[in-house]
Write a structure and sequence with these properties.
Structural class of chain B: alpha/beta
Shape of chain B: globular
Largest sheet of chain A: none
Oligomer: heterodimer
Strand content of chain A: under 5%
Distance between the termini of chain A: 24 Å
Strand content of chain B: 25-35%
Structural class of chain A: mainly alpha
Number of strands of chain B: 20
Distance between the termini of chain B: 47 Å
Radius of gyration of chain B: 28 Å
Strand order of the largest sheet of chain B: 5-6-7-3-8-9
Chain lengths: 286, 429
């Protein structure tokens, strides 16, 4: 793991170039440029609100209305899309850039790394939309109905809030990066041995997405007796921590955060070790 | 900056590249999934071993220019990838002293969606250059490549010539100690070719090492003092161009013969017309002796024997032959009748067989591929009518290891140089 980090440090300029180039390429030729990163979540928010509030009239509990649910979902979606995008791009990263791997001496670690960083930055750009919604619903137009407030207090729901716990946000970003990079590097290398990996990745990500409480509350899973599934899912720990910090102004559950840190570093270690052990063979495998 | 490098090179002497017992195997799998099994399951590796390069010993002195030649699949590319460190040897070791820049394939090392400018940065960064170093070279690279405004367009919009220009500019501007270039890429239009050759000469003067790859002896000869001939993954011969030339030509003949004789067996895709009473059958070509060949060298004897058989009566058949270069240039044509000393055949009957021969005492053609067209025309009528007209009846190749003349024809030449105060000197060949 440290070797990997050292390699990346040695080539930080290369990584920075790739990231810059990648972010620019996302919206090259579009008139609104980076604005799209902000527009997409707003559109998502509108769609979710419409579907869950107007059509399904969905409620996560008897006191959360459609708009609230939409914002909670949006937080999950934003994080999950960054993760899923990184995973599928990383898996194909070596194949896609075979020109660099096969024809020049190229530090292959740079490829999955820059993709992870680029997705994280892209995610950060859409964060303000979520925070703006939180500020609107929590401060500008807060819930005043005493009946709802009573139910919330009873359920221990602090409502939409922002607080000093936001300082943990960079830590979450870091852990998300380590986790994604670790898995991404493993599958990037593995894909060279078994090209079907890339195709399976899409399916696996969908399954994983629905196994993670993004569109439904974690509580519902626990009530049905599948809580153990959540205890095994680091993406749930991550998204849950993001929601506590970004939506409710709570501090994350430290034990879970500790687990997340441990698992992220372990995965990064395993992923980068496997990557490194096979690196010399990459040009032959492509 | 160049000065210090030069001094170092001169003082240091020694070897730029040393390879000892270098070998590289690739594993070929029947099914892709076997590769996964190999990774995960213990036991003997599945799949066949294929040695792309084996037993290669090299010692390339610093400051030399070396050509590596060999046909397709001889292991040149693999050897170069090993020398540049792109792949790692299965056995043996390589020591490379200094920074290597290579230009091995069209668009190698370029990201197709990046602009030219971004690719310059990318390539420089890969070599570990700092921002200042890149900025310092950037202008020079753009200027040398003559890409102008195109430098800000994506590389996948470039013509192959533009890609080569950019590739060459980058490879030679990153201040490498060792430059590896595929000869096919060091070209472009004549103007750029000239610039490339100047650049390469500068390299040699600065005491840098250049490796040239080619499948053609002639082009390597002018640039390289040393030539390495590869065949089936091994170094077959190593020495000066003159020393290697003979072995190379022998190989080229064998290879050309194999290729062309199979081509000549399947050559009936070309038009053939005529009334058909006399038909040409076999076409055999000879240099010396009676062993048919399809490859020749300039100045060799050249003889074509065309067999014929008669399947109907014909009043006055005349055999002719046309000689064309592969691009369609009509080089020569003649028949046995329109001569100062004609051979008349007269009427022929069904069932007759025989052959006609046309020969040059000394083949006046230079390097290239040529084909023969055969004619049998009936001259009994005022305007000869086709009996058997056979386009593209046989193909042969002229190989030229020495390449002392260029163009289409080998012509005997005499050169004279007269300097004031000296007797004129002449050279007749």
């Amino acid at each position: 793991m440290f070797r990997y980090l050292r390699t990346i440090r040695d080539h930080r300029q290369l990584v920075a170039d790739f990231v810059r180039r990648d972010l620019r390429a996302r919206y090259v030729g579009s008139s609104m440029g980076f604005f799209w990163s902000v527009v997409f979540p707003i559109i998502n928010l509108i769609v979710f609100t419409f579907v869950f509030r107007m059509i399904l009239n969905a409620r996560w509990s008897d006191f959360q209305d459609g708009t609230t649910v939409a914002v909670i979902m949006l937080m999950g979606i934003v994080i999950w899309s960054a993760f899923a995008e990184s995973m599928s791009r990383c898996t194909n990263s070596l194949v896609e850039n075979s020109n660099l791997i096969q024809k020049v001496v190229f530090p292959a670690e740079v490829l999955p790394t820059y993709m992870v960083i680029s997705s994280l930055i892209n995610m950060l750009i859409s964060f303000p939309v979520v925070l703006a919604a939180v500020i609107w619903l929590g401060y500008v137009d807060p819930i005043t109905d005493p009946a709802v407030l009573a139910k919330m207090a009873e359920a221990g729901d602090p409502g939409f809030n922002l607080g000093p716990s936001l300082v943990v946000l960079p830590l979450l970003l870091l852990l998300q990066g380590l986790l994604t990079a670790g898995l991404g590097m493993f599958f990037a290398a593995f894909n060279l041995f078994w090209r079907d990996t890339f195709h399976l990745m899409g399916v696996a990500l969908t399954v994983w997405m629905f196994a993670t409480p993004i569109f439904y509350p974690a509580l519902a899973v626990e009530r049905k007796g599948f809580g153990w599934l959540l205890d095994l899912n680091p993406m749930h720990w991550l998204i849950d921590s993001y929601r506590r910090i970004g939506l409710n102004g709570q501090w994350p559950e430290w034990s879970r955060l500790g687990m997340l840190a441990l698992v992220s570093m372990l995965l990064l270690h395993l992923g980068s070790s496997f990557f490194r052990s096979q690196k010399n063979r990459f040009p032959d495998l492509l | 900056m160049y000065e210090t490098k030069k001094d170092k090179a001169l003082i240091g002497g020694g070897s730029a590249i040393v390879a000892r017992g270098l070998g590289k195997t690739y594993r070929l799998y029947d099914k892709p999934i076997h590769r996964l099994w190999d990774l995960m399951l213990p036991g003997k590796p599945r799949g066949k071993e294929f040695w792309a390069v084996r037993d290669v010993y090299l010692d390339i002195p610093r400051g030399s220019t070396v050509g590596i030649i060999g046909e397709n699949g001889a292991g040149k590319s693999t050897l170069l990838k090993l020398l540049t460190g792109i792949t790692h040897p299965t056995v043996g070791e390589v020591h490379v002293d200094g920074r290597v820049a290579s230009l091995l394939e069209l668009g190698a090392g370029f990201h197709p969606e990046f602009s030219g400018a971004e690719n310059i940065r990318l390539n420089c960064s890969i070599l570990g250059m700092t921002d200042e170093e890149i900025a310092e070279r950037f202008e020079r690279i753009v200027e040398f490549s003559e890409l102008g405004e195109f430098i800000h367009r994506p590389v996948n919009t470039y013509s192959s010539g533009m890609q080569v220009r950019l590739g060459f500019s980058v490879a030679t501007s990153v201040d490498p100690d060792i430059l590896i270039i595929d000869e096919a890429l060091a070209v472009g239009d004549e103007h750029f070719k000239g610039k490339c050759i100047n650049r390469l000469n500068e390299f040699q003067e600065q005491g840098k090492t250049t490796l040239f790859v080619s499948h053609d002896m002639g082009s390597v000869k002018s640039m390289c003092q040393q030539v390495i001939l590869m065949h089936e993954g091994r170094v077959l011969e190593q020495g000066t161009a003159e020393e290697v030339a003979d072995e190379y030509l022998k190989r080229a003949h064998a290879r050309g013969n194999d290729r062309l004789s199979s081509l000549n067996r399947t050559i009936d895709a070309y038009p053939r017309w005529g009334s058909g009473e006399v038909r040409t059958t076999t076409v055999e070509m000879f240099a010396e002796g009676n062993k048919p060949t399809q490859t020749f060298e300039p100045g060799m004897p050249f003889r074509v024997r065309v067999g014929y058989e008669v399947t109907g009566d014909c009043a006055d058949p005349v055999f002719g032959m046309g000689l064309y270069r592969s691009d369609g240039t009509y080089v020569n044509g003649s028949n046995h009748y329109w001569r100062r000393d004609p051979i008349e055949i007269g009427p022929v009957r069904n069932g007759e067989k025989g052959y006609v021969e046309m020969a040059f005492e000394s083949l006046p053609l230079l390097k290239g591929q040529y084909y023969l067209t055969l004619f049998v025309y009936d001259h009994s009528k005022p305007a000869p009518t086709p009996v058997d007209h056979r386009e593209h009846a046989a193909v042969f190749e002229v190989l030229d290891g020495r390449q002392m003349q260029h163009g289409l024809l080998f012509l005997p030449t005499r050169w004279t140089v007269a300097r004031s105060g000296q007797d004129p000197r002449s050279s007749q060949e």
